[in-house]
Amino acid sequence: MDDGINELLPGMRRLGLGKRRVTATDLTYGAGYTESAGDVRSFPPTGMPARNAYQLIHDALKFDGDPTLNCATFLTTWMEPEAEKLIVENLGKNRVDIDEYEQTERIHRRCLAHLHDLWNGKRGQEPTGTVVVGSSEGIMLGGLALKWRWRERRQREGKDASRPNIVFAANAQVALEKTARYFDMEARLVPVSEQSRFCLDIERAAQMVDENTVGMFVILGSTYTGHYENVRAMSDRLARLQRDTGLDVEIHVDGASGAFVAPFAQPTLEWDFRVPRVASISTSGHKFGLTYPGIGWVLWRAPECLPAGLTFELSYLGGVEKTFTLNFSHPACFLIAQYYQFLRYGRTGYGRIMNACMLHARLLSVALEATGIYACVSDIHRPRGTLGYSEETRLAASDLFAETVAAGEGKSGADPAVNLEFNDGLPEVAFCFTEWFRQKHPGASQAVVSTLLRVRGWIVPNYPLPPDTADIEVMRVVIKEASSEDYVNRLVRDLLWATKTMLDTGVKPLSSALDQPLASSASTSDLAHEIAGSNRSTMSDGEKHSHWKGLLQRIGELRDTQRPEQPKMELLDNGGRKSFYQKTC
Ligand SMILES: *Cc1c(COP(=O)(O)O)cnc(C)c1O
């Protein structure tokens, strides 16, 4: 833990947190309840007035980035006031108490039915699924169900079931690797390449399947670049594999983002329960489900896809309850907010929002490429079937974009037909310097541009692509409901400002400095030492002690003269214990 300046000033502890009786003037900010570094390790010994606690935390959080300008996140950063009202009204409810909160449970069932319908589950069939905290929990449950079914099959056949593996591509989000590791499965990572557009290579994946493969994760919407992996083609390939080898392998779709984008923006794309080998689907309600974190969903194609052993029947508070989540208790308010979004927007509303996101993401892509400085690794702005950046594809993309915008003039944004002309994918723009720019400015660094953008408040991450393609670094912008045309305009302008500033300030020194980012583990005193080296004046512990004692005494005197009504302060030497500074009332 970084103790902040306390490391530099080891004698100083507890500059005043909660040491005094509350007086009327204490209810103002800065009345002495500051968060002293010495206090962060121990549980607060006393409380403080609500107003001070609020202000302290409120102000500390100002150092967080602004969610609205956080281009990195896929998560919902804005909801309507009515949704927020429902959230606040239901903050104290536990989703799992279905007897006490019957109506909340009805909402839960309705949401599951809506998603079963949205993902083309079998008509007339009761949905099998549950609300979860986020996609990670959904992915783990989906992975577990695959593993249990594989194990049951192996045991029935009298075969060894001790070495399960699960196959997915190297562009996987960490939740997939966690699932493999936490539940003792070998993660078989399918290498990605530029040809596979940095995501699942169907043929290589099929080659990695064997009799110990419990199933596959297929990702609808790669976090790295927004590309959709081809669920239909993977399912067809697995069907052929079964004909050739007898291996029967099913798919869990990680639709964290895509399961709420594709049904509205690319409704003809078959990736869901229409595809025979899709056993289960998970998604994040808090991404393009348009709800604040944390909420997610997991649904199975049919009850038989969820092994009975994973379900617990509890007689709980007067009823029988089936549960198959990892966590028991769970906030009800976000489930309620999710239902609000379903009711509020419906298919047309979600359609309008997703199509606007696609449009703005394409606008950003085309604008970036028009600069000559940036090339997109994502493909959503390119004519269907055209992949990768070149001068030719740049022109083709910008021509088609201009055409579709002109043709769409005055039309409602709800028509997804225009998306059919472009490649499928998430409204996410992943981009990097063009080859030309790199050659002209050999030291240019995207990391520096990313850092300079922070000056303007923007959070645009820069990160390497998945293993095997990690020599390419990309910057990423996720376009969300709140990312308007004006937002895109300002982002492009500020990005160019940052790029110019990088060039003006001399690329090399700054970039090599920023190549060593501040590790979160780097302590304040390490930093001071690194900068000042051995020139930094060093004090012995005794010197520090008397130095700080003297200083604090002076502060104390100053306070006493300024606020004569305050109780007198005394310095106590607690027999060598470090908290030698204390006030007595
Ligand atoms: C965000 C994301 C996850 C994890 O989702 P959480 O809701 O944050 O748990 C998993 N997979 C993909 C592809 C994601 O984008």
Automatic annotation (TrEMBL):
Cofactor dependency: pyridoxal 5'-phosphate
UniProt modified residues of type N6-(pyridoxal phosphate)lysine: 287
Ranges of biased composition (kind: Basic and acidic residues): 558-571
GO BP terms: L-glutamate catabolic process
Gene3D superfamilies: 3.90.1150.160, 4.10.280.50, Type I PLP-dependent aspartate aminotransferase-like (Major domain)
Source taxon at top rank: Eukaryota
Entry EC number(s): 4.1.1.15
Main enzyme class: lyase
GO cellular component terms given for this protein: cytosol
Coiled-coil regions, chain positions: none
Segments for region (Disordered): 558-585
InterPro entries membership: Glutamate_decarboxylase (IPR010107), PyrdxlP-dep_de-COase (IPR002129), PyrdxlP-dep_Trfase (IPR015424), PyrdxlP-dep_Trfase_major (IPR015421)
Entry keywords, A to Z: Decarboxylase, Lyase, Pyridoxal phosphate
NCBIfam families registered for this protein in UniProt: Glu-decarb-GAD
Family, per entry: Belongs to the group II decarboxylase family.
Protein name: Glutamate decarboxylase
